[in-house]
Every structure is written in C-alpha cells, then in structure tokens.
Amino acid sequence: MTHGMRTDVHISPEGRRDWRDDAARYALLPLRIFLGVTFLYAGLDKLTDSAFMKDAGAGSVGDMMRAVRDSSAVPALVDLALKNPPGFGYAIALGELAVGIGTLLGLLTRLAALGGALISLSLWLTVSWASDPYYYGNDLAYLMAWLPLVLAGAPLLSLDAVLRSRRRRRTGGYR
Q: Is residue 171 very low, low, confident or very high in pLDDT (cuts 50, 70, 90)?
C-alpha cells in the first residue's frame, strides 16, 4: 500500500492553480507549529521552575498530584507519579521537550505526535479529568489536536520529508 499526498489539482478558468490546493497542502502546518511551540514551552517552563520539580510545596508537582488524586479517572496513574514526584516531573518535562522539538523540526513527526497525544491523555485522565463541564479542561482538546499529526505526519517543511525524498532518490521510486 502506498501513501501520498493529494494529486488532484484545481485549475481556474484562467488556467491558474487554485489557492485551495496550496491551502490543503499546508493545512496541518499551523497546528504543527502551535503544538510544537506549546509543548516546547511547557517543557522548558517546568524545567526552569524551581518550585515545580519538588516533592512538596506551593507549585510543586507533588502537591499538584496529591490535589488531583481523588478526582482523577485513573488514581493508579497518580499513585505511580507520587512514588517519585520530581522524577515524574522531569519525565513529563523532558517528554514535552522531545515532542515539541520533534514536531517543530518534523523529525519522526508521527512518533512525536503520538508522544504528545499520550502525554495529553495521561494529563486528561489525571489532572483535568474533574473539569466540569469537560470542555473546560484543555488536555482533551490537546489530545484531539495531536491525532491529525499522528495520522498524517509532516509531509511538508520537515526533516521527515527531506529524509523521505533522499530515500526515494536512492531507491529510484516510491517508498
């Protein structure tokens, strides 16, 4: 099975290519930039916040986890995080950094997007689960935003596209 981009082209009556074709080709780019910058910022914000990476205290990951434990959908995930709150904080922050960098560069984009989706899912099931109504919690929206990138990757303006192009030239065809 081969995968590719749309090949049909809208031609205007004047013989020019239609703007809709370019818009369709670049449709995921704003989402990719937004999610990449947001996750990069989130990771850096956690790593540079001296209070966040502590077991206890105002603004600490430990206190946050203890506060959401009883209202989360999966308390076992929170209990796991509470075994070593600073370790969990570093894991989330470094995961967000990796996801943000991979998404912005378009390197292993589907894997980065899957990582972003899993981070968002875990935060939705723990931290923002009790949001009422549910749409006040942003982690579910982030989870849904990652899914198009999981499915489509980064076909344009990405290191994945460059690597795919080099692979095609070397093999002389589609791969």
A: confident
Q: Are 87 and 132 in contact (CB under 8 A)?
A: no
d(CA 130, CA 68): 8
Instruction: Kindly report, residue by residue over 101-149, the tens digit of the pLDDT.
Output: 999 999 999 999 999 999 999 999 999 999 988 888 899 999 999 999 9
Burial class (CB in 10 A: 0-12, 13-18, 19+), 71: middle
Q: Of 95, 96, 83, nearest to 42 (Cα)? A: 96
Q: Which tens digits make up the pLDDT trace of 109-120?
A: 999 999 999 999
> Cα separation of 69 and 46, whole Å?
20
Contact criterion met (CB below 8 Å) for 46 and 89: yes
Q: Please give the model's pTM, rounded to 2 decimal places.
A: 0.84
**Which residue, 89, 67, 91, 66, is CA-closest to 79?**
66
